[in-house]
Design a protein that fits this description.
GO molecular function: methenyltetrahydrofolate cyclohydrolase activity; methylenetetrahydrofolate dehydrogenase (NADP+) activity
Pfam family, one: THF_DHG_CYH
Number of domains: 2
Organism: Candidatus Jorgensenbacteria bacterium GWA1_49_17
Number of strands: 12
CATH superfamily of the largest domain: NAD(P)-binding Rossmann-like Domain
Distance between the termini: 36 Å
Order of helices and strands: HEHEHEHHEHEEEEEEEEH
Largest sheet: 7 strands, mixed
Number of helices: 7
CATH architecture of the largest domain: 3-Layer(aba) Sandwich
Radius of gyration: 19 Å
Keywords: Amino-acid biosynthesis, Methionine biosynthesis, One-carbon metabolism, Purine biosynthesis
Protein name: Methenyltetrahydrofolate cyclohydrolase
Shape: globular
Strand content: 15-25%
Strand order of the largest sheet: 5-4-6-7-12-11-10
Length: about 280
């Protein structure tokens, strides 16, 4: 089955529209204009307009100096009417990411990059929502998290500790054979086609946060090229392994999977921080 992220996100956004709108604005700091970052910026601007949130994009050139960016972020974060601050990642090599993150006040950290915010990282919200949507019991799941980055793998693996039946974490160069034991695979590497259907067990669920441009199109970490699907909205996905056995798989597509839910969860966090 393909998990329709747009529909799930639409439900979250509809709930937000029925809640009192925050009076403060959401600030976004963007350095450079990398294509994948611009795609997420456009999604955020679109949702902000739909729900009526004051969205303010602060753009800086790719060559901005570290101290200059630090001072600018400090000024933005210090504005009383700023109710949330998003630092769009990744940052250029000359920027000390950790120094910039430390400037973000916990009460305005909608991505919980500091680890001190009173909200979960949006990626954690996505995983929790998909698990609920698939009607899975987290305590029964053996989970593998591929990639341990700041936005996805790190916070998701930390959240899963003690909640699931078993947790395996690995980076992109790790032995992907361990995925054959996982009921749920969460990937946030950003390497197109890294995970093949043959490396998964029958009935596995894949939550794919990976985002990469390959052959002129956007692709995720999970290679869906060999998967056959019926029509939307409830598509059953099947794959034949080397032995010809048909195995059922459930996954988030790219695009249209985790991306829309991530953005919706970010705005949900913004509302929570401004209640």
């Amino acid at each position: 089955m393909i998990i329709d992220g747009k529909t799930i996100a639409g439900g979250i956004i509809a709930e937000l529209k029925n809640k009192p709108k925050p009076e403060k604005f959401l600030a976004v700091v963007l350095v450079g204009e990398e294509p994948s970052m611009m795609s997420f910026i456009r999604q955020k601007e679109k949702i902000a307009k739909i729900i009526g949130v004051d969205f303010r994009l602060n753009k800086f050139p790719e060559e901005v100096k570290n101290d200059e960016l630090k001072e600018s972020v400090r000024e933005i974060a210090g504005i009383p009417d700023c109710g949330g601050l998003v630092l769009q990642l990744p940052l250029p090599a000359q920027i000390n990411r950790d120094e910039i993150i430390e400037i973000i006040p916990a009460e305005k950290d909608v991505d919980n990059l500091t680890g001190r915010a009173p909200v979960s990282a949006p990626a954690v919200g996505v995983v929790e929502t998909v698990i609920e949507n698939c009607k899975l019991k987290i305590e029964n799941l053996r989970v593998a998290v591929v990639g341990l980055g700041l936005l996805v793998g790190g916070p998701v693996s930390k959240w899963l500790e003690g909640k699931c039946a078993g947790l395996q974490t690995l980076n992109s160069s790790g032995n992907l054979e361990v995925l054959k034991q996982a009921d749920l695979v969460v990937s946030g590497v950003g390497f197109a086609g890294l995970i093949k259907p043959d490396t998964l067990k029958d009935g596995a669920v894949v939550i794919d946060f990976g985002y990469d441009f390959k052959d002129g199109k956007t692709s995720g970490d999970f290679d869906t090229s060999g998967i056959r699907n019926s029509e939307l909205p409830a598509r059953n996905a099947s794959h034949s392994d080397a032995g010809g056995k048909i195995r059922n798989l459930t996954y988030t597509p790219t695009p249209g999977g985790t991306g829309p839910i991530l953005v919706a969860k970010l705005f949900e966090n913004f509302y929570k921080l401004n209640r």
